[in-house]
Amino acid sequence: MKKENKARKLIKHFGIVFTVAFVCILASFAIHVYRVNLYNNASRTIDSDSVTTEATVEIAPRGQTTDSWEKNDVFPGTILYGKIYEVVVTNNSLTNMTDWILRVDIQEECLLNNAWCGTVEIHQNTATGEKVQTLDLRNYQVEDITLDYYMVGQDLLIPLSSGDTILYYPYVGNDSGELPIRSTSDYSGQAIIGMIFYSKQESMDLSAYTLSYTLTKSYFSGIGGKVFMIILPVWLVIMLIFAIIAWIVVRFEERFTLQSRLVEESLELCANIADAKDFYSKGHSERVAKYARRIAMQMGMDRRDCDNVYRIAMLHDIGNFFIPERIFKKQTKLSGEEYELMKTHTRKGAELLMSFESVPYAAEGALYHHERYDGTGYPAGKKGEEIPLIGRILAVADAYDAMSHDRTYRKRLTGEQIRDEFINNKGKQFDPVIVGVFLQIMDDLEREEE
């Protein structure tokens, strides 16, 4: 025992050291996460006067011959020059631009015809006040437009003047090339959008703009992030190995202690075993224990719980010690008084096992193994899942042993008869789930009994 105690003490000291170190690492990572979050949540803006290279905006006419034309059917005697203006938003930050809005301030009279691929929020100053509307100029209903506009053939023309503004919101669909704008050390990501304007001049000044955006980087980007990306998994592996070793040592010590107590208490308890009162009960408790453990295993319980179920089952009929031997050996049906006396073995057993701490729930097993699922059992008349699980398991195991072995009042049943009894009584005498589990292993048990 001294070796186990020293081992546990050593594990405790190492555990404190590892825990403190791990807390320090987590605290450092939390500070790193906080700084990254500050970076990611910062609102950023640039305009035409900004000197930063973190992000840039270029607005210029496209240079192809088909990208500019003339139009003379809007205002009589007036020629309008149409142009496609290409807007290039570039992210040079080495992180992702996850959100951005481009504001363009109109400095001269013009007409907006189209913009792609996102939507535009147009602020139009009119004689009746400011009008604001957000439109997808590639997909709209004319009757829904609240701005001042002209409709010339199939062309929508929205008049703008100095002081008006356009806010461009990027397209956010799965096939979007506008969000996010990714940037790495190998390349700077770009979003390229287009707008069509008409004006009386051959070129327009669109140099007044403001780009509002946010940048997002991973918690594991940069040197600090990469260090944590290495340290955290390695430390978690170390902690896992330590936890496994500690668990093995502690379990061994607990098992050693438990086995020592079981040996001592079982020797004392064996003197009070009541199976010997009846010839037909020889080996009953051991068989029920074996069946109960197999049921627990089939239900997916861990090994420790299965072993405990076995020990509980070994003790479930200990209350028989208090029942007169004549009742067990009676060849005819018990009288009402005798039957009531027989039923007291559950409470007597539970009282005897109440302080038997080395086998948890032993008292429950003794007390409830004759309860019925429909509530007609004894001693408490519990119903369904009100009956503790150990009681429901023992009810099936106990019944199987009774049916598969000779009794004073009848011969053993065949396997087919036993199976029919369980099926007919599931939901009545037995928990239907546990019956289903037991029927899966019944054939194996029969083969083992042969």
What this model shows, in words?
The chain has 450 residues and is of the alpha+beta class. The protein is 42% helix and 20% strand. A hairpin with a 2-residue loop joins strand 7 and strand 8.
Quick take:
This protein has 450 residues and is of the alpha+beta class.
List the helices and strands and how they pair.
Blueprint: H1 2-41, E1 44-47, E2 55-61, E3 68-71, E4 80-91, E5 96-105, E6 110-116, E7 119-126, E8 129-135, E9 150-152, E10 155-160, E11 165-169, E12 189-199, E13 209-216, H2 222-270, H3 284-298, H4 303-315, H5 325-329, H6 336-353, H7 362-368, H8 389-403, H9 415-425, H10 432-449
Helix pairs in contact: 1-2, 3-4, 3-8, 3-10, 4-7, 6-7, 7-8, 9-10
